[in-house]
């Protein structure tokens, strides 16, 4: 169809441009050049705009060759070199050109580590700021099914980790064979693997792991992709649960999170293309190790409940007989002492508190 036929139909230049998928200025140029008989069924052919010469243009070949030989050469270093050769331009256009032509090594492909059902869980803390204070979310995700558990706590310590893992195992109905952590201080005492030594795990955590029957593993330093299964849920928790919601307090936060977890574990996962709960029930649930018969009780960590103060501590009552000195003299002589005297009641404060003594 010719351009004049479009115009004879009363169509505007903007409408013709939108119909043909070209710029309105092109229609105006054709009309100004008298190309009314131009066949618009054929797409227009654009010629490339000639490159504009700049002060840097004479140095393009030199810069490209230098970067080919030394890919890590900085733009500042090249700027000094070409200025010595007569370059009078600015640094910004040089920096842009260097960034465009610098050879880049091919990125190392990220290998996704998939694990067998029931084999591994990944756990990590995420710091959350709320109107009433800072909280820490412990996220535990099963590596195969991607079934997720979240627990909020006021601290990011070993006690919170123990409580969170115990609740997670109860939520899953079993224990995986191993749990992968980041370089978490409550788990890893020292990671000497980069220097050829071994990983040193906190002894109290080893006792906790032995009680539940799993092996503790740690990510290599600066290799966050090895724990991507829990890194992505952290971002998902922030964007899909926390962002745009308000909570009245910790109880409301916990209740809302429990409801959200039900939906999160029933969504279609982007990697597995399955619902985590369905994948868990079908393939993984029966392969988890059974829960221990009793919870773990640490002999080192203080109980979570507040300890009683010295005023609250129970007092020990001791009954002591009160006798005059004549009684003890009679006992020393072997004669029968007089009748027993009244007793004296003594109260002892709680041992070691320093708040009370014998009264």
Name the CATH architecture of the largest domain.
2-Layer Sandwich
Count of structural domains: 3
- The share of residues in helices is 25-40%
CATH class of the largest domain: Alpha Beta
Q: What is the topology, as strand order, of the major beta sheet?
A: 3-2-1-4-7
CA-based shape: elongated
What is the N-to-C order of secondary-structure elements (H for helix, E for strand)? Answer: HHHHHHEEEHEEEHEHHHEHE
Query: Unreliable runs, pLDDT <50, ≥5 residues?
Result: 305-318, 348-359
For this structure, what is the CATH homologous superfamily of the largest domain?
A: Ribonuclease H-like superfamily/Ribonuclease H
**CATH topology-level fold name of the largest domain:** Nucleotidyltransferase, domain 5
Strand content: 15-25%
Distance between the ends: 114 Å
Radius of gyration: 39 Å
Q: What is the SS-derived class?
A: alpha/beta
Largest sheet: 5 strands, mixed
List keywords for this structure.
five-stranded mixed sheet; 359 residues; two-stranded antiparallel sheet
Structure description:
The structure is a single chain. This protein has 359 residues and is an alpha/beta fold. The chain folds into 3 domains: 57-101; 120-287, Nucleotidyltransferase, domain 5; 308-359, no CATH class. It is 35% helix and 15% strand. It is built from 12 helices and 9 strands. The strands form 3 sheets. Strands 3-2-1-4-7 form a 5-stranded mixed β-sheet, with helices on both faces. Helix 2 packs across helix 3. The chain is elongated.
